[in-house]
Amino acid sequence: MAIAEVTIIPIGTATTSLSAYVADMQRILARQQGVSYQLTSMSTIIEGPLEDVWKAIAALHEAPFLSGALRVSTSVKVDDRRDKASSSEQKLQSVRLKLQ
């Protein structure tokens, strides 16, 4: 399973607030098949089979254009572990155990 951290920034919008764009992108993610996701204050974490994660990222990248943005900057980090099952929660739990 792949875990991706995605940050999408619409450029050239009428306001400095991006929360409406973020809300639109969360609605798009809710319709995506094969992935789970978590909104954070700085990005969105998407988990699932790599092919489904890429499809979700492509849909998210297009979303600001559909809302009137003329330019979009998208940053993606992918952790694709194939030797054993992995998830965001599993990664966090591993660190928590080491903190005890």
CATH topology assignment: Alpha-Beta Plaits
- Counted beta strands: 4
Question: What number of domains?
Answer: 1
Oligomer: single chain
Largest sheet: 4 strands, antiparallel
- Return the CATH class: Alpha Beta
Family: Belongs to the UPF0045 family.
Protein name: MTH1187 family thiamine-binding protein
Pfam families: Thiamine_BP (PF01910)
Written account of the structure:
Residues 4-96 form the Thiamine-binding protein domain. InterPro entries: MTH1187/YkoF-like, Thiamine_BP, UPF0045_domain. Belongs to the UPF0045 family. This protein is α+β, with helices and mostly antiparallel strands and 100 residues long. It has a single domain, classed as Alpha-Beta Plaits (2-Layer Sandwich), CATH 3.30.70. It is 41% helix and 29% strand. The chain contains 3 helices and 4 strands. The chain has a 4-stranded antiparallel sheet with strand order 2-3-1-4, with helices on one face. α1 (19-30) packs across α2. The protein starts with a strand and ends with a helix.
